[in-house]
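Hi R.,

Here's the chain you asked about this morning:
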Amino acid sequence: MMKIRILAIVSLMILVQACTQKKEKEQKNQSAKTKKMEQIESKEYTTFKVSDHVTMHRVAFKNQYNMEVVGHLFTPNNFDPNAKHPAIVVGHPMGAVKEQSADVYASEMADRGFITLAIDLSFWGESAGEPRNVVAPEIYAEDFSAAVDFLGTRPFVDRNNIGAIGVCGSGSFVISAAKIDPRIKAIATLSMYDMGSASRNGLNHSLTVEQRKKNQLEAAEQRYVEFAGGDTKYTSGTVHQLDDKTDPIQREFYEFYRTPRGQYTPKGGSPKTTTHPTLSSNTKFNNFYPFNDIETISPRPLLFITGDKAHSKEFSEDAYKHAAEPKELYYVKGAAHVDLYDKIELIPFDKLESFFKRYLH
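And here is the predicted structure, written out as tokens:
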């Protein structure tokens, strides 16, 4: 009996040791993988001019769901790789990819001395996730934290001074992440959309509960189709053609997403589906409440930037109302929503630079 117990204990010890060695090997492999930074030429990835004073790299790392997140890491040409530097994660508009808007902010802030990382949210661009274009706000928020994991383990990044910028929908995703991730030390949003409220209520609360329920029923019925192997359906997003009935807001998005100004189709993607989330998943935004408990982010600072002519300014105003100090709501005179995606002459980069230099020491 004693021999059997000893054998069982020994077997258990061997099993535990094997599992530990396997985990250490996986962590080592992951660490080795994330240390590789592939330098790339900006002209192959961007629709705007990147400063000659920054270097651009393609990087990839895993989030907690073991999904690969792909990003563009920007570094100033004159930075000291042996020193610790503040860093900023940048998220793209909902339905976009890192090449659209996020890279604009990341490259400009790198030109101003920061290490920056523009990421593709899961299910979009080069990042993992099937089927493509799925709505998953919890995972989107996780991607920001995974980007902090990556940056905070780089030898040239000060892990105690990592901030984040969220453009449009990513403004709400980064707030969702910051509420539970105190490593995000300072948060700025541009042309923010509260994707939860926009889905539930529409702009200016124009959507009735009956209309919301109708949308939910349509999405739920589509789940049967896809579960049985039917075709995926897509919804909302940006129109592909303009006509006399196209409303001004759609025209604004069209000018960016459907013209050379900002049009970009990721490798393996299709122009027919860019910007369009899947119908069956889109109603998941109805359960997304990013501004609940936003006051708990304090004493970390929040900067909400919106155009004074933006159709979306209600979301920045609502977030500012519920947030605790330190906080600031900044209006860009003459700017509409999409203007702050890429119009360098309107984007208040001096404001962003002073904000992050003040709070990321």
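One quick note: Residues 30-34 have pLDDT under 50 and may be disordered.

Cheers,
M.
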